[in-house]
């Protein structure tokens, strides 16, 4: 760090990535929502729903001294298994033969940041082995949904090891509150509710 | 089939060797292409397959139409805003809501900003690598590179030392063995034609563009409240404007508006001093590679976008024109009506869906999305483990086949530019004519892969100019005292009629995008999206017409079927959008297309 306050004084990004509309793909985003609802973090920490923005996330990664990523992963484990992967173990390469810019993997975002000369000093991935990545409009599978709180706990430990203390909120933020991260109609309860949805369609 | 002719004028022959290009990812999906080549490795048959079902229509059923934008925004990670805007327009159309002037202008600013960012990123970070050999850049002489750069542009970052630094950074990547985003390409392929110096210049601009695009997106953050995933609102825009405010949370004030103005000026400079000169320099080496035209010389479609006048969606108002060209007749631009049941129809005879009668097409208001995965009798390989070749005589794609009055159509920047050109609009005609003159090529050169790529660059420049004008218009209106940004008269469902239907349209950067909604008793009764890549990547229809991707690949010679760079080049020129969800990490981090030749 140039300003001499140590690595933990730099900017930290807590990033959830994945597609909310796609079963266990939603895990990363649901994690940052859960974390944000229950804990306040210092001003140097940004909690972000990265969705499937791909390469467009590169500037946020570049700006981060510390990067904590939540994501659904496929390491061939039992669905619901949580994994913590650090530093160079988080792969940062991908292929140029992709068909579409929309296939930009997060690995590519990391390598693009590296190429631009601004790679996070600390990088941790908290991943869950996904069970279902195929069902459009599907909910989190029970095995994965059951690990949301554990993933948040792991994140708090990781942040603490970086010298960042999360402060529990007196009461969790309401879904759909005017707060930026939660201000959409897709919070987990609303998204996964099934009551009344078919009634009006009949 | 061995040989046959299609009603839309193409000859197909699937007797030769079959080349299959299929992304390999954990998640099934995306785009798969199969082509047959003849003994000279020229493509004689092409099969475009969307291998993933996206049933958004079912997710939306029964929900509050005012929330639909938030769901549609997640269809796609790159075109979030354009889906949200299309959804908001569909619901406003259904409910008869007129939006304030400022809201319309801010919508245009959001959309034009997307164009500037998306076209720039597409060119440098997806498509340029089909023309630029990154590894060759290592052999470039930085001094010569500097001379080249200074001969085509006044862009200041052009010293020999600068290019030497870039080369050293690239070298570090190559030597570390990871190649970063440049891994798994066909480096050294003979279809690459640029000298090392031009390759190094392009690599430097690849990095500069990557760094610069973050500035552009700040406009979305300012007007959409946050980024990624800006907020949208049925009836207007969700941002309050307070010109006198000094950083009030969420309000747009003078300080932020000045920032927007500065970003627009810098974007324009980057496009005009970097993107356009690069495009012309690269094109000059490839101007005899005139493959990939496909449907572009015959059938083109645009819904239009960016109304200059709020709530006026006619061609008198639309900055990007609406219309259709049929049979290559540029003297007639046909009127397009999204609500006319005879115009836009989707067919599923070759798609993995079921209709009661698959010989007819359905207008999106009557759309049915009922998946039905069945393979034809001539499918090769094991359907449950590895399909070696699909049977295009049967169903072979999760994309439906949209048609305009029965015609397969190309959509996207080239369609928009040719339609604007045919209408005689100077803001389309003049840059096209100037570019053709500079390159010394006839107008027919437009109808090619390179023409599509050039149109995208010209459109990026067009968009930056319109962005500046739109922003100036917004400022003038605000200073005149009109601060209204939303019309909430019909916010409450109690003000809505029992049943209503609406169509929303935009031109996404990659082409015409439509949403059709039916609202009943305050909830969504049905919702259909027809996205640009469904038009371009469409499979055959009952009459046998092939779609834009399939048509564009025909007659292209492959230097080496094992390394089908030419296929990627043409498909990339459409800026396809198929899947936005492949970030899932696996231990080896692989994300690449495999190629099999049989």
Automatic annotation (TrEMBL), chain A:
| Residues in the signal sequence | none
NCBIfam families hit by this protein: hupD, hydrog_prot
Where exactly are the transmembrane stretches of this chain?
none
Q: Which GO terms describe its biological process?
A: protein processing
PANTHER family associated with the record: HYDROGENASE 1 MATURATION PROTEASE, HYDROGENASE 2 MATURATION PROTEASE
In Swiss-Prot or TrEMBL terms, this protein is called Hydrogenase expression/formation protein HupD
What Pfam families has UniProt attached to this entry?
Answer: HycI
Matching CDD domains: H2MP_MemB-H2up
State its role.
Not known. Could be involved in the processing of hydrogenase.
Spell out the family assignment given in the record's similarity comment. Answer: Belongs to the peptidase A31 family.
Q: Does the record carry DNA damage as a key word?
A: no
**Keywords noted in UniProt:** Aspartyl protease, Hydrolase, Metal-binding, Nickel, Protease
Q: Please give the organism.
A: Rhodospira trueperi
Residues annotated to bind Ni(2+): 25, 71, 102
Molecular function via GO? aspartic-type endopeptidase activity; enzyme activator activity; metal ion binding
Highest taxon above the source species: Bacteria
UniProtKB/TrEMBL annotation, chain B:
Where along the chain is Fe cation bound?
79, 580
Principal place where this protein is found? membrane
Which InterPro entries is this protein grouped with?
Ni-dep_hyd_lsu (IPR001501), Ni-dep_hyd_lsu_Ni_BS (IPR018194), NiFe-Hase_large (IPR029014), NiFe/NiFeSe_hydrgnase_LSU (IPR050867)
Give the record's membrane topology.
Answer: Peripheral membrane protein
Q: Which PROSITE patterns match?
A: NI_HGENASE_L_1, NI_HGENASE_L_2
- Name of a matching Pfam family: NiFeSe_Hases
Q: Which SUPFAM superfamilies match?
A: HydB/Nqo4-like
Keywords assigned: Iron, Magnesium, Metal-binding, Nickel, Oxidoreductase
Catalytic activity line of the entry = H2 + A = AH2
Which residues make up the binding site for Mg(2+)? 57, 583
Enumerate the subcellular locations listed in this protein's record, separating them with semicolons: Cell membrane
Q: What is its EC number?
A: 1.12.99.6
- Superkingdom of origin organism: Bacteria
Gene Ontology CC terms, in alphabetical order: plasma membrane
Listed cofactors: Fe cation; Ni(2+)
Q: What family is reported?
A: Belongs to the [NiFe]/[NiFeSe] hydrogenase large subunit family.
Give the quaternary structure: Heterodimer of a large and a small subunit.
Mind telling me what this protein is named?
Uptake hydrogenase large subunit
